[in-house]
Amino acid sequence: MLQILAALVFGYLLGSIPFGLLITRAGGLGDVRKIGSGNIGATNVLRTGNKGLAAATLLADLLKGTLAVLIARWFSPELGLYAGFAAFLGHIFPAWLGFKGGKGVATYLGVLLGVYWPAFLAFGAVWLGVAFLSRFSSLAALIAALVAPVFLYFMGHSSAAGVFVVMSAIVYYKHWANISRLMAGTEARIGATE
């Protein structure tokens, strides 16, 4: 039990590092929470017009999920899943930002990479396909988040699949405004500015 608690705390602290906020401030662009959606994730960083900082944010948010899994898994395989889940929650609900973080997709993807890399590739392929056809980043993420737990389950990773069902539900919750805009036909397409 103490190991599980330690994995959860470690994962949460790692996941709650607000790279989008830190990177945009270091890049001289101020507080990313004051533009666009107000989120600290890569999609909102991209709205600053700086693709390099957005890419750096995406990579950092992804890798903190992967590192949480890999470091905790070094002690025990199941601890990696706990730490990854906590990193995902930390990114979305960071205590030092009033529990207002990103939407979690990059960290979700990073956890997926650490848990089972073929599922990471499946998520990426679905995201790219849907994004290419629809030009909606949010729709691509939502569909890929449906596919990932199913893929894990059919590949024999039922425990991970159960955790990712919960994570996908949280992704949907965090994308509720996007879902509403998609249904209303007002969601911004990739490359469009708000």
Strand content: under 5%
Helix percent band: over 70%
Cα(first) to Cα(last) distance is 47 Å
Quick one: biggest sheet? none
Q: What's the domain count?
A: 1
Compute the gyration radius: what is it?
A: 16 Å
Query: What is the residue-averaged pLDDT?
Result: 92
Shape: globular
Count of individual beta strands? 0
Number of helices: 10
Order of helices and strands: HHHHHHHHHH
Catalogue the unreliable spans: none
Question: Which structural category fits the helices and strands?
Answer: mainly alpha
What does the model show?
- This protein is mostly helical.
- It has one domain.
- The chain is 72% helix and 0% strand.
- It has helices spanning 2-15, 19-26, 42-46, 51-73, 77-92, 105-115, 117-134, 137-154, 158-174, 176-184.
- α5 packs antiparallel against α6 and α7 packs antiparallel against α8 (137-154).
- The longest helix is centred in the N-terminal third of the chain and has 23 residues, at 51-73.
- The mean pLDDT is 92.
